[in-house]
Amino acid sequence: xxxxxxIRTLSNFYYVRDEENNIWECKARGLFKMQKxxxxxxxxxxxxxxxQEGQKTGYIVEIEPRRNELFRPQIANVDQAVLVFSMKSPxxxxxxxxxxxxxxxxxxxxxxxxxxxxxxxxxENQLESLLKPYLSTGYLIIRTSSKNNIGLExxxxxxxxxxxxxxxQSGVGKSSLLNALIPALELETNxxxxxxxxxxxxxxxxxxxxxxxxxxxxxxxxxSQLDFVGISAEExxxxxxxxxxxxxxxxxxxxxxxxEPGCAVKxxxxxxxxxxxxxxxxxxxxxxxxxxxxxxxx
Length: 298
Ligand SMILES: Nc1nc2c(ncn2[C@@H]2O[C@H](COP(=O)(O)OP(=O)(O)OP(=O)(O)O)[C@@H](O)[C@H]2O)c(=O)[nH]1
Ligand SMILES: [Mg+2]
Ligand SMILES: [Zn+2]
Fold this sequence. Notes:
- The chain is built from eight helices and 13 strands.
- α2 (94-106) packs across α8 (276-297).
- The termini are far apart.
- By secondary structure, it is an alpha/beta fold.
- The strands form three sheets. A six-stranded mixed beta sheet has the order 10-9-8-11-13-12, with helices on both faces. Strands 1-2-3-5-4 form a five-stranded mixed barrel. A two-stranded antiparallel sheet has the order 6-7.
- The chain has helices at residues 30-34, 94-106, 124-131, 152-159, 174-181, 244-247, 264-270, 276-297; strands at 3-10, 13-18, 23-28, 44-52, 55-63, 69-70, 75-76, 80-86, 110-116, 140-143, 163-167, 207-210, 216-219.
- A hairpin with a 2-residue loop joins β1 and β2.
- The chain has three domains: 3-63, CATH 2.40.50.140; 69-219, 3-Layer(aba) Sandwich (Rossmann fold); 236-297, Ribonucleotide Reductase Protein R1, domain 1, CATH 1.10.40.
- The structure holds guanosine-5'-triphosphate, magnesium ion and zinc ion.
- Magnesium ion (MG) binds next to α5.
């Protein structure tokens, strides 16, 4: 039975690329629906092929176990996620970035922070203060402008031979970046709404694109809502990487770093070793998760 990888989905069709680079338009067996399994872009699958009159169609019959998967954007089996954030229009948001980082860490996917539209910044100092909270995280941060061709070579070198997903709000410039990185690509892009300061959800589906020098990148639809389904209060601190060396030495096991005595994380915040803004976001997310957990038991 032929094997391939889903590289694009559209309504109920899955486009599967086989080992010879042919694309097959497949449907999923009803079986998956019964088991509540949705095939994802990035999935390796086995399919029943129907090759009639040159029309390559088929049915997906089996999905291989996933190495990892992201809920938003929906994708499986990637090496890294480029979190795309514009400096302006829409405005840079540290809380949204921290949320994204939690999700990507939970999925065990390596994040790269990619700042876009740096041509819209009035001065560099502004950038430095926005990035200060992330210095101690060790995350790679790449500054780009698709418009002025800044940072694109650095980004390209990070994508080479890797399977990468681009994730970010609508209008931050994900498709524009890909157009700038891959010559001849003409992905649709759209101005953001002046009235709302938000993107117009131009990209409608997830799809993998091949990079000329090796590797694949997935363009994805923008989104702004992200909740913490599937993340428990106890594990949240694992996803704030710079907390880890401190949380290991908190007095109590299972310390949630709120008001517990002997909390090494809180002490590190007081000593400015952990950024206060990141810590505040941690507390905020923790409350959201706890409230959702309490509601479930009511
Ligand atoms: N000034 C400036 N504008 C940019 C840059 N990159 C993208 N834009 C503009 O930002 C707008 C949105 O870009 P898109 O590439 O469509 O954004 P997207 O992230 O793909 O949006 P969705 O598909 O809706 O998720 C377009 O008008 C682009 O021209 C940049 O580096 N500088
Ligand atoms: Mg787009
Ligand atoms: Zn603690």
